[in-house]
Amino acid sequence: MGQLFKSTLLVLTALFPIVNPLGGAPIFLSLTRYYSTEQRKLLSRRIALNSILLIVGSYFIGTYILDFFGISIPVVQVGGGMVVVATGWAMLKQKDEDETKAGVHRSVDTNDLFQKAFYPLTLPLTVGPGSISVAITLGANEPHSAHKLLLSMIGAVIGSVLIAASVYLCYAFSDRLALALGATGMSVVMRLSSFLLVCIGTQIMWNGISAMLKTLPAFGHGG
Predict the structure, then answer these.
(1) Contact 43, 116 (CB under 8 A)
(2) Inter-axis angle of helices 21-31 and 146-172, to 10 degrees?
(3) What pTM was computed for the model?
């Protein structure tokens, strides 16, 4: 049971700060501002399920998929970081909503709702390249003993479910957060969150670029 607890805690502590559901809640609310509370809850549930699949999938088979296509983790970081930067920049430039439009809800088809649930709301905003690369790394370093391997796999799934549950709670009730902060407070939080998203994306890109530069003779220690 020690291995199970250790693996669950490892996934939680490594991925929760990167997924950061509390920080993502204002961004989620901004992108779903025309949706009703019920639609937002439905969308949050789908994002939580998508998050479990992405984290668990990255943990178990991420290494094999990257090997198959000949893609390294630094390349994933650079490409994914660019997507995160682009999303954050677009949101940073987004104008504040008109007060008269704030309470308006659009009639959205369930299929359209679920299409948006994966991109951009799950990937890259909730489980982005940073989370995926960490999950792949954790999966690549799992124990080789059959007994420990099984427990660490179960622990990884439990950890992923706990992270997804926190995502659901923060996203589904993001409108209450907005109510508590008020229009001005929410606008400030949104701008800060968008700027941080640009910074996070830039950092992810730099991590990938740094790792790739170290492989060059001029930058590596062996050169």
Answers:
(1) yes
(2) 50
(3) 0.79
